[in-house]
Amino acid sequence: MPVFHRSQRLKIYGSRVEVTQLHNGRYELVVRCTANNDTEAWYNSNKAQIFASFGTLYIDPMSIEGIDPRIGEAYPNMALVQNEAGFTNTGDYVITFTYETLTDTYVQENQEKVDHELNGLRRVTRTVIAKSGTSYGLVVGTATLVDHSAIGYGTKTLTLGAVQEDVLDADEGGYTRIQETWLEPGTLNISKSNLKDGIIQVITEFLVTEGTTVGPIIRRSVDNTSGLKTITVTTLQDKSGNSVLLADPLSSVTPISTHSSLDTFTYPGVVNLVERTIDARSYSDRDDITSFEYYLTPPVESLIDTETFVFIQKSSTVTAEDKQYDNATGGLYNPESWASSYSSGVDINKNPFSRTDALRGYRAFLDLDVVITEPASDFSGNFLINGRPILNGNSANIGMKGGPSDPENTKFVLDVTIVPAFETIDGTVAFKKRITVSTIPSRTVSYVPEGTKQIGSEFASSSGRFSNSQVIDGMVTLSDANTIPVLQLDFNKAPASASDLEHSCIAITKGGLTIRNSDNVVTSGIEEARTITDYNTNTKKVTLSSGLTRFADYNTSGVSVFYTLYGFERTGFISQNIGTTNTKFLLDHTKTKIPQSTTFDNVFKNVALTITAGAGSGESRNITAYGGINGEVTVASAFTATLDDTSKYRLGPA
């Protein structure tokens, strides 16, 4: 009994169907048939007898003399994928129907391919198949394959990276075949390049999905290479891999880079007011000329070591913290004023004078305002004010002030610049800030020329400048040099307040000055300095701290005695503890401003040295010696605590 396929006109060739089991539970059926009239089966008018539409099912009867399959003959979901007619090797004319299992759901057609060629990331290639017209609902970059496992590897969640539909051959149909590429999201490539000032440009290429990056994003691009989605992100980092765009304010951030260099710095010039003694009266029985004059040290441009800190920030504003960065105690170096000098009075020719000079680029060594009174005597003045002799019995004024502070040994911010650096893809503008800092080196420069003396600030500002004067009533007669002497001041020039002198002023005495008119030979005596420990405002007498070495110079008849008063600062810090006895020290010379001279030997003898803060605070010892040349202070007994540069001292009582 003949067996037919889908039509009474198609008899199964060989009476059986060829069956092949495919991957994933699918099957292929190949049915070969002969036509009742095979000589005319291929005619155009007869093609409906031997060909069926792609995608029609095995169980569907054909349109001409169609029949249903026999019970149990048909496999489920068998759709026609190929239909052809031709001769066999034996010369028989055969119509071939090829069916495969196809549904409305995509299933894997064959074994997947797994590789790790993309920077070690897992790539899975699959082919899926379904009936023609079946909707493919997966979205590239969104669909995931959870817990995918491969032989020899652990589980990974993969993302659909690419989808490509196969183009069927002309003699195929009824199905859709799609090639899927599933990818392990991750980093394909990282490249770095050094831009400038410690900014590192990092280009990261991601596969399928964008991963985490560090630093502001200045560029992002999405590409499709060989059907695979890649995302390239450009960020900026510092050399440690941190974001260059940090938060504000400045106090909460770290510079992205620092570098050292040599930069120019202009030391301001210095104007100083000094005293010079001019030996111009050797023929007279009167004192020498004392000149008060300016000494100018010009500005100097030098190369100094600097350190520059670079920041990236969102703010374009220079803050107060910027101006004090890196503990710059001097702040931003930006002189806003310069020194000026001035003098006024009436000269020896009775001509009034008044002059003020602006000294651009200079600072005043001290702010000084000095008043000089010319004695009302019968000789032509013994004081010069900036080269002008002063009229007898008149006062003159000379001073200087202003300008920046001394920059030496102080840390300053020298420069702050903020410029646009880059813009992120979200429109944020970032700025590059550069802060240059330096501790200004000290120089070995003398602002007191040879043959002159420095005029102290306290002496000028609090007490006024007391000129040389012959002693009125002489020294109080004493028995020997160890007795504490008393000095009589000139009533016309002595201050009214005891606080102006006591423990804050030094008397430089000069006794034994003898002038012999016959041969113009001058015996000038010796200067000795002592601290004033007591002052009687009524009698104008001052008590000195210790006896004078050449006592005979002050109590011998026929000699003249002169004095000059200088102020000094009573407080400061111990500069150095000398030796191991804890009894010899150097005081802060920048505070005392005492010249190095034997004149000042024992100037502080018998004065109390009290430590008010730091190491040794609360202890006090009497000074037994002071070296005028080396500045060493020796006390009567060792301090209990070892004094150091934290020890703040006071000379004399509170």
Average of the residue pLDDT scores: 84
Proportion of beta-strand residues = over 45%
How many beta-strand runs? 42
Show unreliable segments. 281-286, 457-479, 515-522
Specify the helix fraction band: under 10%
Number of domains: 6
| SSE class | mainly beta
Query: Whole-number radius of gyration?
Result: 53 Å
The tally of helices reads 4
Largest sheet: 7 strands, antiparallel
Distance between the termini: 139 Å
Task: Describe the protein.
This protein folds into 6 domains: about 10-100, no CATH class; about 105-185, no CATH class; about 185-235; about 250-440, no CATH class; about 455-565, Elongation Factor Tu (Ef-tu), domain 3 (Beta Barrel); about 570-650. Helix content is about 5%, strand content about 45%. It is built from 4 helices and 42 strands. Strands 30, 31, 32, 33, 34, 35 and 36 form a 7-stranded antiparallel beta sheet that branches. The model is unreliable at about 280-285, about 455-480 and about 515-520 (pLDDT under 50).
Descriptive terms for the model:
42 strands, seven-stranded antiparallel β-sheet, six-stranded antiparallel β-sheet, 6 domains, 654 residues, mainly beta
Provide a compact summary of the structure.
This protein is mainly β. Helices cover 3% and strands 46% of the residues.
Give the helix/strand layout.
Elements: E1 10-12, E2 18-21, E3 27-35, H1 47-50, E4 78-87, E5 93-101, E6 107-108, E7 113-118, E8 121-131, E9 144-150, E10 153-165, E11 175-183, E12 186-194, E13 200-207, E14 217-225, E15 228-237, E16 257-267, E17 269-278, E18 289-297, E19 300-313, E20 339-346, E21 352-359, E22 362-364, E23 368-373, E24 383-385, E25 388-389, E26 395-402, E27 411-423, E28 429-439, E29 452-454, H2 457-463, E30 469-470, E31 486-488, E32 505-516, E33 521-523, E34 526-536, E35 541-544, H3 552-555, E36 560-567, E37 571-578, E38 584-587, H4 589-592, E39 608-613, E40 620-626, E41 632-635, E42 648-651
